Amino acid sequence: MRAALRRPVGLAGVVLLVLVLAAAVFGPVVWGDRATAVDTADLLAGPSAEHWIGTDNLGRDLFARVLVAARLSILLALAATAISMVLGFLLGAAPMLAGRRLGRLITAAVNVLVAFPGLLLVLFFAVVFGVGARGAALAVGLAGAPAFARLCHTLIAGISERDYVAAARIAGVGRVRMLLRHVLPNIAEPVIVYATMAAGGVLLTFAGLSFLGLGVQAPDYDWGRLMQDGLNGIYIHPLAALGPGIAVVLAGLAFNLTGEAFASAPRRAHVLPKAGQPAPATAPAAGSVLSADDLRVTIPGPNGPIHAVRGVTFAVGDGEAVGVVGESGSGKSVTALAVAGLLEPPVRVEAAHLVVAGEDLLAPGAHRRLGTALAVVFQDPMTSFNPAHRVGPQLAEVSRFHQGMGRKAAFARAVDRLNAVRIGDPARRARQYPFEFSGGMRQRAMIGMGLMGDPRLIVADEPTTALDVTVQRQVLELLADVRRETGAALLLISHDVSVVTDVCDRVLVMYAGRVVEELPAKDLRTLARHPYTRALVAAVPDMETDLDRPLAVIPGLPVDPVETPAGCAFAPRCPLADDHCRTVAPPLLDGVACHKAGEAP
Amino acid sequence: MSTLTFHEVSVRYGAHTVLHEVSLEVGAGRTVGLVGESGCGKSTLARAAVGLAPVTSGAILLDGRPVPSRGRRPVQMVFQDPYSSLDPRMTVGDSIAEAMPGRPGRMERQTEIARLLGLVHLDAARAGDLPGQLSGGQRQRVALARALAARPRVILADEITSALDVSVQGAVLNLIRDMRRDLGLSMLFISHNLAVVRYVADHVAVLHAGRIVEHGPTARVLGDPRHDYTRHLLASAHPLKEHT
Ligand SMILES: Nc1ncnc2c1ncn2[C@@H]1O[C@H](COP(=O)(O)OP(=O)(O)OP(=O)(O)O)[C@@H](O)[C@H]1O
Ligand code: SF4
Ligand SMILES: [Mg+2]
């Protein structure tokens, strides 16, 4: 609501709408007498100080009549919109209410009607229902119903796929109750916004019908009717016809702009406060392919800046495999995106240095300059591939763009790389679309894309989380092979401790945007010194877990990255926490950030 | 508690047969783990038992009688994604109350909601919260409470921990074990994670390409697998350290 009002268009729409509605409510009360006062001395007069837009053929003040007509015009438009909305909702809900077969029939009919020109429908129904305000309202309402039906159908289809609808069905909730309790509340917002916009259009249509003589009949009058009356004298007194026309346009705009503003109201995001003093630049660690010093990433959020990464220092040596583990929200993916140079304003990336494969990532255009030295693999490969293009050409694109290869040569390399990531029959697969690949195959193709060049570093963010155990293992083995063959370093991010310990040499444990512990992967299960690392490892059952004891759990919730505490971020959940922990943040010393590193709880 | 029996159940979508004559028994008070890779038909089997998937042939029986596929089911299901399994506009209490049998009065309702929230280790004050105010693990516990509210004779848990962070996964698994001990629930526990199944289930069935290829006591199946596919699954679950 506030967000919509904050924008000039939204504000204009709402102010206009309030004025229009005020005219509809008070118009007949305030100007009613004036609008009916016959003045035979002043017939068909032009604009004057007394009659702003003139008088009609009985000498009645036209300006007053326009204001009085607001009530009928708006009421009829609203009534027609309501008819469309109710009918549309019922038709759209048909698949849910009437069963699958009848529902499908109704949906098909709706689709045909939507394709029909709206005006034709209106005229058709207007003739069927006969001349007059009631007939016109029915006609306009009926003609608008298919569009509403389609909207409701789409929205309802989205809702009924949700598990909570399935759960309610299993719990024995009937169809009507389902519609009222689960569906209606969840689609109300977009439907009302759409209805507001539609009301503007309905207003126009109605004016059109009355203008044609099919709508409101004398002695009643709405804006369309007034326009028609004024038409005869349009060359002498243009304002007599234009006045009500302007009213229609203004009222239509009022509805439209208001609806539009609410539909596109952006999620509110605060602007980040100005950056502090930049840390003095430092030199990257020797022999490293990736080196970051005091990396900080801040993202504008609805409740203030989100401190996603709060000072992370680490390096990945040439050919080394480093894992990053931590709960969701601990800043793993944001770190990966920063390292890949994929973060852009308004997100703010700061560091004493951030160097990947010799490129300074704090300078603009970082991702582009990295070229093929960096390969990135994400959790959901479906979003990394363009679904509209075949896989082979998408791979080839990399070589054509970064290495200036010809179309033929690049495609040949793509096929070769698909073969390298062990996709059977690569020549045929290269001509397929991403959706024709299974999840594991897509992930391998994504790795293949990274191998089009000569990567020195592969950043893989949860590459196997969307895959099941057997495929997961294949992808991890592939990553290991690729590293052996190319000597590329790997930054592997996962919330799965066992995946990281299997593949990596060294592990960084992140909590609340900081590295809390850094240790060799083989020591993770046995030699961890940070209470969080220990808890994280103990919480995951493995094939040797003691079946007679409950699993260890980490009490409480992760900290809100908007309100990061002054002391140790883990203190509220830590069994060892004391007042010192709560006030002084422990620095990362000798691989662990804890005042009581290694103490038994 | 009751016994849920799948008797030669087949499910077909068009020309694609998802389940081939699957027979499986979830004994009274037992937790049976169902494992297999994604797309093998695990969810379909569970959904068929509550009437959400069409059974082409065979029968699903509860204590020897067909499971009703309308009205409040005596078999309740908990879903994988805690973010889509609760109505975002309904309070936790209302969601739970909706599944209660009969028409409990106001007081009775409050007491029952509090009791159920207590069962899943949530504070009764949470009843007024909307799902948006809860973490994934808390939502999953509410989903479990809703399933229990219907007084089910069997519970189907479909990958209920795989969308959760490791730190809350453990809490939900502990809860499942507590409930079996305290309430004697019969449960079909679906997961692709063998270590998780090993921790909660006393029996395991292995589903591969729509057929059960092996089943038996958990310790036996995981300790001495007889079918090649089970061995393959187990090999995938163990570290690949020796490989690198
Ligand atoms: N409504 C449907 N229409 C057509 N095919 C379907 C439908 N539901 C499931 N399938 C197919 O049935 C097969 C089994 O699906 P199911 O959801 O049971 O797998 P799953 O073992 O539970 O997988 P996951 O572990 O990924 O959840 C898949 O090949 C899937 O494509
Ligand atoms: S610094 Fe204190 S609160 Fe933080 S992890 Fe260490 S012991 Fe726990
Ligand atoms: Mg499934």
How would you characterize the overall build of this protein?
The complex is a heterodimer of chains A (about 600) and B (about 240). By secondary structure, chain A is α/β, with parallel strands linked by helices. Chain A is built from 23 helices and 11 strands. In chain A, helix 6 packs across helix 7 (about 135-160), helix 7 (about 135-160) runs antiparallel to helix 9 and helix 18 runs parallel beside helix 19 (about 470-485). Chain A has a domain at about 70-245: MetI-like fold (Orthogonal Bundle), CATH 1.10.3720. In chain A, a hairpin with a 2-residue loop joins strand 5 (about 355) and strand 6. Chain A starts with a helix and ends in an 18-residue tail after the last helix. In chain A, the strands form 2 sheets. Chain A has a 6-stranded mixed β-sheet, sandwiched between helices. In chain A, strands 1, 2, 4, 5 and 6 form a 5-stranded antiparallel β-sheet that branches. Helix content of chain A is about 50%, strand content about 10%. By secondary structure, chain B is of the alpha/beta class. Chain B contains 8 helices and 10 strands. Chain B has helices spanning about 40-50, 90-100, 105-120, 135-150, 165-185, 195-200, 220-225, 230-235; strands at about 5-15, 15-25, 30-35, 55-60, 65, 75-80, 155-160, 185-190, 205-210, 210-215. At the A-B interface, helix 8, helix 9, helix 19 and helix 20 of A face strand 6, helix 4, helix 5, helix 6 and helix 8 of B. Bound molecules: adenosine-5'-triphosphate, iron/sulfur cluster and magnesium ion. Iron/sulfur cluster binds near residues 574, 595 and 596 of chain A.
